[in-house]
Design brief:
Chain lengths: 159, 159
DNA sequence: TTAAGTGCAAACCGTTTGCACATAC
DNA sequence: GTATGTGCAAACGGTTTGCACTTAA
């Protein structure tokens, strides 16, 4: 976790008047110690690696705090559970391209597309709020290696 | 429901070897008798207006058949339930702009955006599959009239 | 006649919440 | 000391499913 992120998290705790608990520390380190997208369940696992006492309830409660402050972005990728994106506050305008084979997620930005969307919205009588683009396709790994690099990205289990 | 749609539904039933039941008829008429997006629950209500014997289970089972055949498009609009789009098979490349105030959904297409997305995907090493764009904003109704036209679009209740 | 379809109620599963206990301040 | 935070288990809500009954073909 870089220094800037650490500082942002400190500010977050202070401004909201939140207590520094061991569980919150473990969850924050887990969430922002990666640039990968994760689910509530994988975050629980990662946080428990740091502090086994972390409960599922606290993970969900902390996720709610982080998303409403904008430190995490909630993603709806068509699965029946949510993903969380720890890169959003640094790159608020990025979009996602997702591999259908291995669920690998790559981020991109495009001023051109944003401009076009803005024009279309205006023509349709809308004041634009947010834009979300999700491209699905196939990454090169399957073709090249016969298997994607990330086949294990989505399995989940309870404890 | 126009003649072309009717024909498509006939083909759908025949090709899948599905029986023509009163309940299916009611659900199909409800689903394709509108160009609006709907939820499973609103479809249940609409189908029951035609045949009160329709059950929630049959609605869900029929929705599964229609989406896997491509006659309906399942939409994930960030709510905790799914929307279904009956216009998709006629306009497979359209996207959505949604009013944050009233949940009004307007559809649009853009070859330019598709082209840009295609280029970006290629650069990132992806073979493009599908593209999904969701713009959120505010429609003009609230500003003009002080209220959106569609405030009742999303409430749901069980029976 | 009989396999496909249906309604009902229970199960499912990710997420939320009430409550009693623990703890940061 | 006390309000905030926590773990646990139960509740929640949209969706799915097992089962016995119905019905189209």
């Amino acid at each position: 976790m870089d220094h800037e992120t650490k500082e942002r998290l400190e500010t977050f705790l202070t401004q909201k008047g939140l207590r520094r608990t061991a569980q919150r520390a473990a969850i924050l380190e887990a969430a922002f110690g990666t640039t990968e997208h994760f689910t509530a369940e994988t975050l629980l696992t990662m946080a428990r690696d740091r502090d086994p006492s972390v409960s599922r309830a606290t993970v969900y409660r902390t996720l709610a705090l982080l998303t409403e402050t904008g430190l995490l972005k909630e993603l709806d990728l068509g699965k029946d559970f949510k993903f969380y994106d720890p890169n959003y506050s640094k790159h608020p305008n990025h979009h996602h391209i997702i591999c259908n084979d291995c669920d690998k997620i790559v981020e991109f930005e495009s001023k051109d597309i944003e401009q076009l969307e803005s024009e279309i919205s205006h023509k349709l009588g809308f004041t634009i709020g947010s834009q979300k683009i999700e491209i699905r396709g196939n990454c090169e790994d399957l073709k090249k290696k016969g298997v994607c690099s990330n086949q294990t990205g989505c399995e989940k289990k309870k404890t």
